[in-house]
Amino acid sequence: MADQWKAHCLLVAYPAQGHINPMLQFCKRLEFHKVKATLVTTRSFWRTVATELPSDSNISIETISDGYDEGVEEEARKNSKIYLQRFWQVGFQSLSELIEKLSGKGCPVDCVIYDSFLHWAVDVAKKFGLVGAAFFTQTCAVNCIYFHLHQGILKLPITESKILFPGVTELEPSDLPTFLYLQYGMHPHYWDLLVDPFNNIGKADWVLSNSVYELEPEVVDWMKKMWPVRTIGPTVPSMFLDKRIPNDNDYGISMFKPSNDLCMNWLKDKPKASIVYVSFGSLASYSDEQMQELAWGLIDANSYFLWVVRESEEAKLPGNILETLSKKGLIVRWCPQLKVLAHEAVGCFITHCGWNSTLEALSLGVPMIGVPYWSDQTTNLKHIVDVWKVGLRAPVDEKGILKRETVKHCIKEVMESEKGKEMKNRAIKWMNLIKNSVDEGGSSDKNIAEFVARISQQ
Ligand code: UDP
């Protein structure tokens, strides 16, 4: 290994936008701390993404097999049980071969940092006598909930009206991750990803979390009693936070092509805090009725808006709505979300509450209106509304539809009311706390420095 590196980490990412972004950013933080970082993802995923890493970056990219090197077949794309079974069968061997290959090339690995979804990777690390670090891309509160389920302490179906976990704010059943209540029984194979990581977490030498200590101190302290947990987030590009990593102003790996110039030019001449930014991440897919209600709500609210409607969702908005929408809004298939959130023209963010989007909005001081779609998004929303108090829950009707008048009401409340001003002030407070956490001597910075010091000694 080149003399300038203290150690070499393999960072094995789960193949999804919301999982590759945090891993890639953690690579950049490690490199800043003089650790060689190699990002690993699957060949099938790598074929589908565009990469734009800074020219001065030393991050290497390697791929492993998920059993679908030529592309994920239709059947496996539609049924993640099939996909995961095959991935789990071939992934272990493929990752082992990669570690051997790198060692043979004079670039031996010291530590395997693996997405908690890929929990078998700790056994690969141990087979080679390497340090193994689990990397969680969700909050510690959500980890705590799944751990209680794994231990059989949380029993399903849920019958209580209030649920208490150590260090977590009191939850109602609908605040739990959707797979445990609102969508209970609908996605049983996601247990492999969300609950099984706790089968072998005891083998991990480190448990890293893309969260911030100050956001959820009680539950982090509780988890630390069991495992060597360290919060290292937010994994947001440094130029939006501490600005210590030169040229780190974007994630650099994207499944979709962002309309950069179009969005930034459109935002340029809009008044301060006048725009509603609407985006539901890379996976959420709402019904036609929901998309149309949202569209009419945006039109009725009469604010400017920038709405990300992925290509796969476009047909849900008929031509007459699109025409009316275009009077005050811009609709794009994908945008540079961080740059948009950081723009002073943006006044609020209608979001599905994916953890990356939530952390980005918190890091940039933008109040939110939450429309969770699935998974941990309901639990994130509970924290946005009742713990961090930087957003509103957009209530749905008995059919689960967020109606146009509610959309309008929520936008007015965040953008124009006294309550909205208070939310904005709190959002700024959290933004500053979060920026400090990754800056020199902050909680996440200290945790990363400790991790690096320890793996460098091994
Ligand atoms: N994102 C983006 N442009 C968009 C929409 C989303 O760059 O138009 C990014 C966003 O910044 C975030 C990620 O995609 O980093 C979405 O992750 P999240 O966890 O919020 O949601 P998921 O896609 O996993 O549901």
What do you see in this structure?
By secondary structure, the protein is an alpha/beta fold. The chain folds into 2 domains: 2-251 and 440-456, 3-Layer(aba) Sandwich (Rossmann fold); 259-335 and 344-434, Glycogen Phosphorylase B (Rossmann fold, 3-Layer(aba) Sandwich), CATH 3.40.50. Helices cover 41% and strands 14% of the residues. The chain contains 17 helices and 15 strands. It has helices at 17-32, 43-46, 74-78, 80-104, 121-127, 140-150, 191-194, 217-224, 260-268, 288-301, 319-325, 337-342, 355-364, 377-387, 404-416, 418-438, 443-457, and strands at residues 8-12, 36-42, 50-51, 60-64, 111-115, 131-136, 206-209, 229-231, 253-254, 275-279, 304-308, 329-332, 346-351, 368-370, 391-393. A 7-stranded parallel beta sheet has the order 4-2-1-5-6-7-8. Helix 13 (355-364) links the parallel strand 13 (346-351) and strand 14 (368-370). Helix 13 (355-364) packs across helix 16 (418-438). It is globular. The relative contact order is 0.12. The model has no long low-confidence stretch (mean pLDDT 96). It binds uridine-5'-diphosphate.
Largest sheet: 7 strands, parallel
- Please state the overall shape, judged from the principal axes of the Cα atoms: globular
What ligand molecules are bound, each kind once?
Answer: uridine-5'-diphosphate
Helix percentage range: 40-55%
What is the number of domains? 2
Number of DSSP strands? 15
* Residues in β-strands, percent: 5-15%
Let me know the CATH homologous superfamily of the largest domain.
Glycogen Phosphorylase B
* Strand line-up of the largest beta sheet: 4-2-1-5-6-7-8
Kindly provide the name of the CATH class of the largest domain: Alpha Beta
CATH-level-2 architecture of the largest domain: 3-Layer(aba) Sandwich
Radius of gyration: 22 Å
The low-confidence runs, each spanning 5 or more residues with pLDDT under 50, are: none
Cα separation of the termini: 15 Å
- Average of per-residue pLDDT values: 96
The CATH topology of the largest domain is given as: Rossmann fold
Q: What structural class do the secondary elements suggest?
A: alpha/beta
